Amino acid sequence: MITVDFNSLRISPGDRILDMGCGSGRHACRVNEFEKVTVIGVDASFDDVREARGRLMYHEAIGAHGGGSWGCAVGNILALPFPEASFDLVICAEVMEHIPDDARAAEQVMRVLKPGGTLVVSVPRFYPEKICWKLSKAYYSVSGGHVRIYRKDRIKSLFENNGAKCQAAHFAHSLHTPFWWLKCLVGPDRKDSPAVNLYHRLLTWDIMKKPKITRFMDNLLNPVLGKSLVLYFKKKIISRPGL
To answer: Is the pLDDT assigned to residue 142 strictly greater than 90?
Structure first.
């Protein structure tokens, strides 16, 4: 499930890209297809990093890469182990809603991004997320779960206060919103709901096959039902007097 619109990004050979909160490597694998880039996937979960590494190794084995390099590491967004201005592009998809100290997280993400570099951030959209919280306390109260619901202005200001400028935004994954409402309604941990299981099979089929009809429906409904808010930033270049 790809949240980022990579067609709107200018990714060039030699770019260094950080997938912060890489999870199982969905975005790291996708960006590794670009020509001669360096991709680093970082996540707080060892199991997720191991899965991302396996996924990237598989992509390399089948030739689904652009001839660049990649690496994976366990890391904390509050203390990123990279020098300042290390990356041309940082992806931070569905991460910030999990972080209690989101101001520190935003500061660290911006620190490792080069001036003029691109940052892509996605978080759950306010009203679909709010309904999930209303339907089920178990949805957000699990360890490591969501600690807040963002409005667009709040998530924008976190990064703009650290030297970024928001240039574009869109919504994504409208077909997933009713699935999560249904899942919350019957209980997030239930495995025996025929309706939930059938919907999950539909979403899996959609992700794997990418049929035109569901792509059309997803794009059509995103402005109304899109579950994720996706924001695209540029880090400002600060000119120094006399240089």
So the answer is: no
